[in-house]
Amino acid sequence: MIKSYFVTPVRFDFGALALLPKELKALGIARPLLITDPGMVATGTAARVLGLLPAGAAMFSDLPGNPSADNVDAAVAAYRAGSHDGLVALGGGSAIDCAKGAAVMATHPGELRDYDIMKVIKREGRAITPAAAPIVAVPTSAGTGSEVSTIAVLSVGPGEKIVLINNNLLPRVTLADPELTLSLPRGLTAGTGMDALSHCLEAYFSSNENPPAKAVALDGITRIVANIRTAYNEPQNRQARWEMMMGALEGGMTMLNGCGAMHALAHAIGGRHDLALHHGTLNAVLMPVVLEHNRPHCTALFARLEKALELPGGTNFIDVVRRLNADLDIPRGLGAMGVTEAMIPALAEAAVRDVNTLTNPVRLDAAGYEDLLRAAM
After folding, report:
1. What is the pTM of this model?
2. What backbone torsions phi and psi does residue 87 show, to the nearest 5 degrees?
3. DSSP-assigned letters across all residues of 217-249
4. Which domains does the chain have, with CATH numbers?
5. With 80 as the cut, is the pLDDT of residue 65 above it?
6. Of 231, 326, 343, 337, whose CA–CA distance to 288 is shortest?
7. Angle ∠(158,118,10) on CA atoms, nearest 5
8. What is the DSSP secondary-structure string of 188-217?
9. Cβ–Cβ < 8 Å for 146, 112
10. How confident is the model at residue 3 (pLDDT cuts 50, 70, 90)?
11. Helix (H, G, I), strand (E, B), or coil: what is residue 157?
12. What pairing do the DSSP bridges indicate for beta strands 173-176 and 10-12?
């Protein structure tokens, strides 16, 4: 059964942020809580957005790079204290995913981990209902895709991340304004851009057969590969920023077709608070190793991809990725990021438990994940 989820209304272009008051009014949201991060506060973007919100709005910005259940609880407390009726998520994946967690926990019983998709699949968890608080997403990076996806990834304990997947987590509308990415630092441009590429790649190579999703993912891959270096080296290049935000949206639209071993491993490693690593950068480091492992199981898809990118005969897409990582100053391996040999068995076990392992082109057990981790060191 093929399922498609391209259903989030998106207002996309330079200046889209100005539509925020109109969109909130159309949704009947009169007292929104703005969820954002300290970076948006420091740049003044949060204050700019707060100024577009109706009277009674407030802001919650106590967010780390990898949001946790504690951050969600704090956001819920702010939501209830202000008698808010909706959420505006401004930022990258941390803000938008925290908003999704808050949308659930402000309106549903139990604990956040009760809604983990793996528990739901096993009929041990709770379903997210239409009662979830409405969200308007305003992405400020070109990477997460959370602004158009049904997915949120959150930490619920040391070394433990959960994945929420439900149609009721889709933002009611997304304002995708590339203007907000012009000030994105080079390191985050690289990490978030490679995150977007990982979403497109894993949706494209997913074991789920979904031609519309794979076609959109392929378009996203071509946009990102063609423009990420320019966005990195010329931060004010408006066309490159436009293309990168579109590629990120396409990654978010298609990731529900299933990700794979890149994300299973990145979630496992990212769950270690002592490492505090950027999710997209982790995906970039893992990308060549996972693609190399998967290639024998999806040769036709690789051939189609290499043709779409118009690579010279004999050029391997995995080499293209390796050159991208080098040009974007991505760390050379997990060892350089603080991962040690002693961590590998536990990380492999966590990857096996991650929902994304189910749609990797070839199924991996703990031993297989250990081999991938060692190859990425």
Report:
1. 0.91
2. -130, 140
3. HHHHHHHHHHHHHHHHH-TT-HHHHHHHHHHHH
4. 10-180 (3.40.50.1970), 185-375 (1.20.1090.10)
5. no
6. 326
7. 95
8. HHHHHHHHHHHHHHHHHH-SS--HHHHHHH
9. no
10. low
11. strand
12. parallel
